[in-house]
Amino acid sequence: MSSVFAGSSPLAAYGWDETLENEFTSHRAAGLVPGRVAAVDRGLCDVVTEDGPVRASTGPVTSDDPAPCTGDWAALDPDGPDERPAVAALLPRRTAIVRSSAARDSRGQVLAANVDTVAIAVSLATSPDLGRVERLLALAWESGARPVVVLTKADRVPGTAAAEAEAAAAAPGVDVVACSAATGDGVEAVRAVLSGTVVLVGPSGAGKSTLGNALLGADALATGAVREGDGKGRHTTVRRELLPLPGGGVLIDTPGLRGVGLFEASQGLERTFADIEELAAGCRFGDCAHRSEPGCAVLAAVEDGTLPRRRLDSYRKLLRENAWAASRTDARLRAEREDRRKVISRWQRQLYRERGRDR
């Protein structure tokens, strides 16, 4: 595997730049080579390198998050212990989409790393779930990436103006674009608002893979039919994959997300509900809970129809969920500190006993 300057490196098509090249200096000196993780599967991962794709073992790496994920920039040891390249280290993540894990250790699950644009796919074939959109927006904003709402399957409805207005009200400051990947209508408009590394997120049946194929200009992603009754589909995408876009940038397709739990997304919620945060600045009391307090500007906006009641309810729900997730993390950190304290105490007691025997 050769060393190539960033500007002319084949990895430039996958986002490699001079900053990453500089960050990689010490790894090159150690004989490691750069690559971008394209997919992860059962202890192995597909990595795009300067000399083409390789299958590498993951193993333990020197990173805060020990498990590589799609989108990571990795330092590979070309001569791994099992006669295949091995991930030796991960470069610091510029952004990371993290959701709450169902595991008891309360650690977050990284869905994709080093993402620039999060495209939230919402099918117009069924009534859009705005609460889910707001949840995904919070994850996207928290990651450090820029969210975009893409209303898919526009050919299934007579018009999209009302749906676009409804989605825009739930996504202040976010581009909302409608398209039909089946007919091609609106695909170029979608392409225009995407940049850098793009990840497609949304539930099964939202048309992510079909949209991805339209953006890629090829049937590179598996697609499947959805049930007519509820518009839900099977998980035709079973793992996250990273593919270069023909006009520049990179696309990551993800499996349909059934559960999207928040994980320490306070800043993401502030951005998602920027309209409510702005209204709250006009409340009489600084600690207003927006329930029954006098002089509440948020409740006044609900009463006069400026703010939908549904949106306030969603805001409250996600705030509660985020607080609960944060408390789980705090409890885990306390337990880890206690475990470390016990280990140190045992080591000290053993040391004192050994010193006593030496006297």
TrEMBL record:
Q: Which cofactor does it need?
A: Zn(2+)
Give residue ranges for domain EngC GTPase: 113-258
Reported EC number(s) for this entry are 3.6.1.-
Question: Where does this one sit in the cell?
Answer: Cytoplasm
Gene3D superfamilies linked to this entry: P-loop containing nucleotide triphosphate hydrolases (3.40.50.300), Probable gtpase engc, domain 3 (1.10.40.50)
Occurrences of domain CP-type G (ranges): 105-260
Q: What is its main location?
A: cytoplasm
**Binding residues for Zn(2+), per the UniProt record?**
C283, C288, H290, C296
Tell me which residues bind GTP. Answer: T152, K153, A154, D155, G202, P203, S204, G205, A206, G207, K208, S209, T210
Residues annotated as region Disordered?
Answer: 55-79
* InterPro entries assigned: G_CP_dom, P-loop_NTPase, Ribosome_biogen_GTPase_RsgA, RsgA_GTPase_dom
Cofactor note, please? Binds 1 zinc ion per subunit.
Q: Which family does it belong to?
A: Belongs to the TRAFAC class YlqF/YawG GTPase family. RsgA subfamily.
The function of this protein is: One of several proteins that assist in the late maturation steps of the functional core of the 30S ribosomal subunit. Helps release RbfA from mature subunits. May play a role in the assembly of ribosomal proteins into the subunit. Circularly permuted GTPase that catalyzes slow GTP hydrolysis, GTPase activity is stimulated by the 30S ribosomal subunit.
Q: Which proteins does it associate with, and in what oligomeric form?
A: Monomer. Associates with 30S ribosomal subunit, binds 16S rRNA.
Protein name per its UniProtKB record: Small ribosomal subunit biogenesis GTPase RsgA
| Gene of this entry | rsgA
